[in-house]
Amino acid sequence: MRPEDLTRLFVERSNAGDAAGVAALYEEHAVMAYPPGGQTVGREAIRALWERVLVNRPRFEPEQPLPTLLSGDIALTSTPPRDGAGARAQVVRRQPDGTWLRVLDQPEFIPSTR
After folding, report:
1. 71-80 long-range contacts, Cβ below 8 Å, gap at least 24?
2. Tens of pLDDT along 31-54?
3. Please, which residues have CB within 8 angstroms of residue 67's CB and are 6 or more apart in sequence?
4. C-alpha distance from residue 58 to each of 28, 43, 67 (Å)
5. Cα–Cα distance between 75 and 101 in angstroms, integer?
6. For 105, which DSSP code?
7. What is the mean predicted confidence (pLDDT) over 70-80?
8. Against a cut of 0.85, is the pTM above it?
9. Which residues contact 71 (CB under 8 A, 6 or more apart)?
């Protein structure tokens, strides 16, 4: 699996209503900058958050990943969002089995209106 695969897997699992599958894309102590203005810390909290979000059956569209920045076992992935959220970025880490998991997730950057 490549770091960019996490974005595709996120969309597939979210659209299937699989909150546990979404949470499995994150390291145990990952930090997600969501909901807007807040943070969700840890895989279990991320799973609980996505259970609440996915109950409404939102539909996520695939977004083409931008080039990945890679430094050893750490990578920065990003996509230009279709929903006008400004940008999306994730720091991911290669696991001992060769797969990648999200460590930090900034699902939206909203430009400041100040």
Report:
1. 74/103, 75/3, 75/100, 77/3, 77/4, 77/6, 77/7, 79/7
2. 999 988 899 999 999 999 999 999
3. none
4. 25, 21, 27
5. 10
6. E
7. 95
8. yes
9. none
Place of tokens 């977004």: 63
Amino acid 69 reads L
| 61, 11 Cβ separation under 8 angstroms | yes
One-letter amino acid at 92 equals V
**At residue 61, does pLDDT exceed 70?**
yes
- Counting residues of the chain whose pLDDT is more than 90, the rounded percentage is 77
With CA atoms as reference, report the closest residue to 36 among 82, 88, 75, 102.
Answer: 88
